[in-house]
Design goal:
Length: 259
C-alpha cells in the first residue's frame, strides 16, 4: 500500500490516506490500497477498532481525482463508481468498529468515505460537502444513499442539489458528525475512543455492529430476530463468562480475550 499507511497500537489500528500534495484525493490506486487495507485489518484478529484519517493539515480526502474522471465514458464512469462503492461497502461492513477522524476537507468521495465509517469525529476546521452536481455528475460512491440515511432525505437533498459545503458546526447540528475537536486534539480523541471500544468484549462489540447495521435494512419484526440471534451468540464465550462473573463478584474483569 503506497497511498495508505497502517499503524497498530495495541488492539487499535490507525490508517492514514497519504497523498497530501493531492489533498488525499481518491484515484484508482488509492481505492485499491483502501481495499487492501480493509483486507489486512479484517484478517488481523488482534485489531479490535480502526481509525481512518488523512495525511497533512488540509484534507481528510478532498474528493475523487477529477483529472482521472474527466475523460471517462458512460461505461467507464459506471465502472469507476462500482469500484468505489465496492471498497466503501467493504469498509462499512468490516466487522470491527471504524472511526473517521476528519482533519480537514471531506468533499465528494471524502465525505462518502467518512460516511462509510461507523463514527465520525472532526476537527473544527473540517469542511463537508457533495459538490458533484456542480461538476455535472452525481455522487458516485454512496453519497446519495448514506447521506440521506444519516441526516434525513430533506437535508441530504439540500446538500447534494446545491453542491454547497458545510462547516463542522453545521455538520454536528444535522447529525453528520458525532463531535468536534480542535485539530490538535482530534487524533488523540479518536484513538482514545477506539481504545475505549477495544477494552470491551470484541465478540460482543462486533455483534452489536452487525445487529445495528443489519437491523436497519429490515422491518422491526425482522430486526429484533436479528438481535435475538446475535444476543444469543455471545453466550458460552469466555469473554461473556468472565464479564458476568466479574460483575457478580464485584471485581474488575480481566482483559477480554476475543474468544
Amino acid at each position: 500500500m503506497t497511498n495508505v499507511l497502517l499503524e497498530k497500537k495495541d488492539h487499535i489500528a490507525v490508517a492514514t490516506i497519504n497523498r497530501p500534495k493531492a489533498l488525499n484525493a481518491l484515484n484508482s490506486q488509492v481505492l485499491e490500497d483502501l481495499n487492501e487495507l480493509v483486507e489486512q485489518v479484517k484478517a488481523d484478529e488482534d485489531i479490535y477498532a480502526l481509525v481512518l484519517t488523512g495525511a497533512g493539515e488540509k484534507a481528510f480526502v478532498a474528493g475523487a481525482d477529477i483529472g482521472e474522471m474527466s475523460s471517462l465514458t458512460k461505461a467507464e464512469g459506471e465502472s469507476f463508481g462500482k469500484k468505489g462503492n465496492d471498497v466503501f461497502r467493504k469498509l462499512e461492513t468490516l466487522p470491527i468498529p471504524t472511526i473517521a477522524a476528519v482533519n480537514g476537507f471531506a468533499l465528494g468521495g471524502g465525505c462518502e468515505l467518512a460516511m462509510s465509517c461507523d463514527i465520525r469525529l472532526c476537527a473544527d476546521s473540517a469542511v463537508f460537502g457533495q459538490p458533484e452536481a456542480g461538476l455535472g455528475i452525481t455522487p458516485g460512491f454512496g453519497g446519495t444513499q448514506r447521506l440521506a440515511r444519516l441526516v434525513g432525505p430533506g437535508m441530504a437533498k439540500q446538500m447534494i442539489y446545491t453542491a454547497k459545503n458545510i462547516k463542522a458546526d453545521e455538520a454536528l447540528r444535522i447529525g453528520l458528525v458525532n463531535a468536534i475537536y480542535p485539530v490538535e486534539e482530534l487524533m488523540p480523541a479518536a484513538e482514545k475512543m477506539a481504545a475505549t471500544i477495544a477494552k470491551n468484549a470484541p465478540i460482543a462489540v462486533r455483534a452489536c455492529k452487525k445487529a445495528i447495521n443489519d437491523g436497519l435494512q429490515v422491518d422491526m419484526d425482522q430486526a429484533i430476530v436479528i438481535e435475538e440471534k446475535l444476543f444469543g451468540s455471545c453466550f458460552e464465550t469466555a469473554d461473556q463468562k468472565e464479564g458476568m462473573s466479574a460483575f457478580l463478584e464485584k471485581r474488575k474483569h480481566e482483559p477480554y480475550q476475543n474468544k
